[in-house]
Amino acid sequence: MREEDLDWAIYHQIPATDSITVEDLATATGLEEGVITGSLERLEHALLVRRSGEMVRLLSIQESLIECQCRHTTEELPFVIENGVIRAKKRDE
Question: What is the pTM of this model?
Answer without folding.
Answer: 0.79
